[in-house]
Amino acid sequence: MKDMIPAWLDGTLTPVEKLQAHVEGMKHKAVSVFLFHAGKVLIQQRAAGKYHTPNKWANTCCTHPHWNEDPRDCAIRRLEEELGITDVDPKWVEQLEYRADVGGGLIEHEVVDMFVIHADETPEINLNPSEVQAIQWLDRAALEAKIDENPDMFTPWLKIYMSHHANSVFGPA
Length: 173
What we know:
The chain is of the alpha+beta class.
């Protein structure tokens, strides 16, 4: 069941293979994390080998929980797997739903549990090159400006989060 993600099939939450969920545009569970330190958020550039949205910039961490995996536990697991970040305390912010074309005939239709982390110290980061090729620390204004200047460099979900949910993540502007 490790490679199965929770998706809704005929209104019932069911374990489904991740690629199938994206090919069919099935509504499925997801987790997104925004990690902050010193007023800046950590964003990541997805690895070139990712099967969708390669080389695009996304929030700190985004993934799908395994079947029966707690969303917070999933956030902690993927922060370590993607970025080598440990010893953090994700705080749940909200649940949201979006549907976006991610290219290649694939659709993300996600019900996302959003988490925010405010780190007192700069976290130790060890990139997993099969997941992440680069990182940046940006404040809200700089991130918004970069998205405005070159929206094609960013994942659809990060653009959705910034245009519709930024106050949940960053607090009121």
